[in-house]
Amino acid sequence: MWATPGPLSGCPDTCHSPDPPSSARMLLPLLLLPWAWGALAASPHLPPASLTLRVLKTTVFNNASSTDMQGMALLGDLETHSMDCSTCEIRFLQPWAHQGLTPKQWQDLELLIHRYLSDFFHLVNKVVKDQGEGYPFVTQVSFSCKLHPNGTLISFCDAAVNGEDFISFNVDTGKWVSRHRDKLGSYVQDLVNRDKSISTLFPFLHRTMCVYGIDTFAQYGRESLERQERPVAVVFARAPPPAGTPVPVLLVCRVTGFYPRPIRVAWLQDGEEVGPGGRLNSSGILPNADLTYQLRSSLAVGPGSGHSYACRVQHSSLGGRSLLIPWEQSRPWGPGLAVGITLGVVAVATVAVVLWRSRRRGYQDIRPGESRP
Q1: Of 343, 281, 268, which Cα lies nearest the Cα of 310?
Q2: Residue 305: predicted pLDDT
Q3: Can you give the pTM of this predicted structure?
Q4: Which residues, in sequence order, are CB contacts of 271 under 8 Å at separation 6+?
């Protein structure tokens, strides 16, 4: 599960230092970043709804000398920044992502990240050496904070190994807690709690990114975060069974192209909303390639039930209104409808016969040698 980490492949020297910095060296740049501490005094401007800022880091330890790392930051569901081993530089993925900090402040933050990575790799190296674990393996670190409209801040920090939760930071106690009660879990828990640089990093990120960063980016990215894309919906029956087959008909409501993500889709039977149950099924909200979302909701209905059905869509882009899409084939063919269709077919056939006879008679009235007008 574990491996001896090597230097970041393809990274400049600043990404990995051969000598691990001490706790004092790690804390010094944190204390000397005036933009971070000065921002704490500012009164945050609250966004109109709850907003989440997430920083994700994935590291692949291939072997003792090959390590690949990728990181990204997301504000809400928008990817704003990224970093990988090809450059080890912060990339700005939104037009406004560089605003809020000066170039010097971004450079200081980049240096801080590099020093954290150096500490992280040395810590993993110590675990591998002491516990004798092997490679390859993958580590994932997630830091997130959520800002509510009333100013309440909630932050989380979790780490996983090979996709399995391994350790998390307890905000109330200020300690790391292992998810595994075995020897390795206890060892890592004690190790990171004794490491002052890592234990101090999370509270620092909470103060800077949650108190200041999330609000700053929310202000500059407000237009992107608050954009509204109206949903487009269609209702159809999937593979309807043959007539007379006592198999339920599966009605599908496909909704796509909407943004932001929250949406409500419901089925109406004779104007009344269908409650939860085995008849309903949903794909969940899925992303589209154009940064919008899609959803499919299905309803199983009995054949020949005689009810009317419609799909109702509620979304913020609709301005308080709803989309109501009826299923046009919702009523089965009863005796009256069958008689009406039969009479219609007979009428069309009668007209066709009359026209054919008239044309035939016209041709017969033309005498030899005469031309038809």
Answers
A1: 268
A2: 66
A3: 0.67
A4: 308, 310
